[in-house]
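Record type: monomer structure entry
Structure origin: computed from sequence
Chain ID: A
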Amino acid sequence: MDLTQLRAQFPALAQTLGDYPLCYLDTAATSQKPLAVIEAMTQYYQHDNANVHRAAHQLSSRATTHYESVRDSVQRFIHAKRREEIIFTHGTTEGINMVAHGLSEQVRKGDTILIDSAAHHANIVPWQMLAQRTGATIVPIPLNAQQRLDQDAYARLLANKPAIVALGHVSNVLGTVNPVQQMVKQAKQAGAITVIDGAQAIAHLPVDVQALDCDFYLFSAHKMYGPTGVGILYGRFERLDSLSPLLTGGEMIKQVSFESTQFNALPNRLEAGTPPISAVIGLGAAVSFIDNLDKAQTQQRETELLQYLQRRLSDVGDITLYGAHEDNIGAVAFNLAGEHHQDVGILLDQQGIAVRCGHHCAMPLMHALQLNGCCRASIGVYTSKQDIDRFIEALASVKDLLL
């Protein structure tokens, strides 16, 4: 499939903003959705709308079959060992909160929790709250001069035998790829539980959780061409089964009396209440969409496109790039001279260019970089070289206006 045919599957890309066609460079915040995802969700609401697991009628049976088939699709997609290791959540944030809450009884006063210094707030705050509940200590893994995680410092920190190591697979701000397989191996040797935020990796890299050998891996559908409001918590079965549930009620219950409650088996035990059924079905369509792409070709094209974006930004002049490496994926962080990132973003928007500006839910990283915020341009499978050229032309005009 050529790029023109692929872009035609994303109806949002065909719109204009004022006098300008949309140039969408904010995929790291949320990806646009292909027709296959939109139609799968519409099909559910038009023909199969019913709750899952809870009725004898045909609509519920069809909805349940479709819903549970997505669990199997995700299991194959990330190479999990068992379907019960796939838990539907409302997104990466909820999933990390579920893990942090569920580990409360396994963390002791004086334990250490190591956290990626470039982490999204969703992979920081739940661990802070766990530390407050248990008396554990949060320790950030510092960045080196290349704005990557300092592997020598990491090795020294592991000597303290941390209880948990929480990492991002890919930085949502910088696009840097952490060597998570090696870091997980080291953490396991130190006896730590490993948690990987894969939200920025899942649409760009092949993910094999068994090869990574992590205890937990989490991601959101809306970063991988699926709908908002649904995500995946993968956990090694024994680790998942040891978590105390964050939420109770609904299908996670096996038996209830006023004296006691018996919880259901996995995966139901961690899926309380009515799930986001249509969104799960949309996630299944997104998995199929990605599976049908030529993965090697797509990854090569995205790599070349991101490197092209880095070069073109450097050529504009008066641009500072942050953590820009050839092996980055998905995103480029930058600022224009001493101009406020929000001003740059607003002026780009007036020319139909959508980028993200702010602290990107990564305030500790901004502090480490000595920034109040920055701009971020991010790409997806539908991004074209022409999009990059339009963005650079618009940015050059912003520079001429402001400097």
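Annotation 1: The first strand starts at residue 16 and ends at 17.
Annotation 2: The first helix runs from residue 3 to 7.
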